[in-house]
Design a protein that fits this description.
- This protein has helices at 27-38, 100-111, 129-147, 150-154, and strands at 16-23, 43-44, 48-50, 53-55, 57-61, 68-73, 75-76, 79-80, 90-95, 116-122.
- It has a domain at 13-53 and 95-146.
- With 158 residues, the protein is α+β, with helices and mostly antiparallel strands.
- A hairpin with a 2-residue loop joins β3 and β4.
- It is globular.
- The protein has 4 helices and 10 strands; from the N terminus they run βαββββββββαβαα.
């Protein structure tokens, strides 16, 4: 008689959409264009520091039970934050799922922005993707925590 083992398979980043972008635009110009084109409110936060190179980081939380967006610079001064097969400049990370129709609409809108060469949806299958997304999520958490009022950071209540 064989004993069946129950196991749970956990996918750490299961509700994330990744849009890779190729452009010669600066980070703030790209963020401004994305804000205007698809109705975001990306705000510049502290850069992600990897070894000796800083990579731009933008954040927007659309509200409770809605999407959270990160715009991350992938290449700076010839250094890459994430080594993908293609030479992507930025990654737009969308958390909390997005309807396929809306995603298709947004990709089309982003492609029409002057100065953007490529917009491509990436799979989460890349071998370095989990550690990269973990790094971005930790950086985001740190930024939010540091910008919160002191009473929230310490857990004190008024």
């Amino acid at each position: 008689m064989t004993i069946k083992k129950n196991s749970i398979s956990v996918v750490p980043f299961d509700d994330i959409t990744l849009l890779a972008i190729v452009t010669q635009m600066s980070d703030f110009t790209l963020a401004w264009n994305l804000n205007n084109a698809i109705g975001l409110n990306l705000k510049k936060m502290d850069n992600i520091v990897d070894e000796t190179v800083d990579f731009s980081f933008y954040y927007f939380d659309a509200g409770e039970n809605k999407n959270v967006f990160n715009l991350v610079q992938l290449v700076n001064n010839g250094k890459k934050l994430l080594k993908l097969g293609n030479p992507f400049d930025y990654l737009l990370i969308i958390r909390h799922g997005i309807h396929e129709h809306r995603l298709t609409e947004w990709i089309g809108t982003i492609r029409k922005i002057k100065g953007i060469s490529v917009v491509s949806q990436l799979n989460l299958d890349h071998k370095e993707m989990d550690s990269f997304l973990e790094k971005v999520e930790f950086h985001e958490f740190k930024q939010i925590r540091e910008s919160a009022p002191t009473r929230l950071r310490t857990g004190l209540q008024l």
